Amino acid sequence: MGFSVSGATVVIFLGLFISFGIAYSAANNGMERVNDAYEENTEDALARQNTAIAIGNASVANEGGDLYLNVTVNNTGSTTLSTDDTDILIDGNYTNHTSSRMETFEVVGSDETDIWLPGETFRFNVSVATRPDRVKVVTGPGVADSEVV
């Protein structure tokens, strides 16, 4: 066996070694991403399972000719929620909690935080043009409750 055969064999094995290294890295990174996505999905499902809310009161008040929708919502689950991640639908229309129509948007007893702990009550008061029929509150994990006004 001459040098050319030995040299060619080394080049082939070196090429196979590099190819295997690249393929293994790509497969390993792909598998890590799949595992991470599965873990996140499992954590999200657990959060949804442990989240529960109940609208305690939904009423419309007429103050000086202006209508206000007053709603209280109880966190009856075991998940800590964020009021900033809570969405409000009034008659199917999204109501932004930072709009100028929102008079009150707070956790009862602690108006300087957006943390909504289990057992606490969240309250909002929003001015409305007409008397609404229905209000729906949706939490960050996607659990919702609705009430006829």
From TrEMBL:
GO terms for biological process: archaeal or bacterial-type flagellum-dependent cell motility. Keywords: Membrane, Transmembrane, Transmembrane helix. The keyword Membrane applies. GO terms for molecular function: structural molecule activity. The chain crosses the membrane at residues 6-27. This is Fla cluster protein FlaF. It comes from Halorussus gelatinilyticus.
